[in-house]
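4.2 Preliminary Data

To establish feasibility before requesting continued support, the project team ran the inverse folding procedure on a target of 153 residues. The structure was first converted into the token representation described in Section 3, and no sequence information of any kind was made available to the design step. The complete token record follows.
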């Protein structure tokens, strides 16, 4: 028994140092130009999206935040992902917007007559990702009445 304690205990202590060193977290840092908003992962993937508040730039990471690529030409006031389709999101601009059906690999531009309303501007169809309700806001003085438009993209 003394023989086992003399060999086994030092061997286990030696192995423990390898286990601790291997489990150290990986930290990657990226500086952006302004405060960030709409930071999220697409479900079941390593693809992440975020927007800068002041510059309105949209950034995409294909590798869980290790690297970031600016999405050229996109300027957004907010990004909303489809809760029913893990590949779809919409970047909302003033009246120019962008939709992706492949987790931000490609964005398609479209326009609306009025800007989106504050609060909940979009409602996604549960089984058809091409059908979206858009709640627009008329620019007016005094009493304003919102409009709902159906998009089929």
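Position-by-position output of the design step:
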């Amino acid at each position: 028994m003394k023989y086992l304690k003399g060999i086994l205990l030092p061997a286990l202590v030696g192995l423990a140092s390898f286990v601790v060193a291997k489990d150290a977290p990986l930290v990657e840092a990226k500086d952006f130009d302004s405060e960030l908003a709409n930071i999220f992962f697409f479900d079941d993937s390593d693809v992440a999206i975020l927007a800068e508040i002041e510059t309105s730039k949209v950034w995409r990471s294909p590798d869980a935040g290790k690297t970031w690529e600016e999405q050229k030409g996109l300027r957004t006031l907010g990004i909303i992902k489809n809760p029913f389709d893990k590949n779809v999101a919409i970047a909302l601009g003033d009246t120019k917007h962008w939709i992706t059906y492949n987790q931000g690999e490609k964005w398609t531009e479209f326009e609306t007559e009025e800007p989106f309303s504050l609060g909940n501007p979009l409602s996604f169809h549960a089984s058809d990702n091409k059908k979206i309700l858009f709640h627009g806001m008329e620019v007016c003085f005094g009493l304003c009445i919102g409009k709902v438009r159906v998009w089929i993209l």
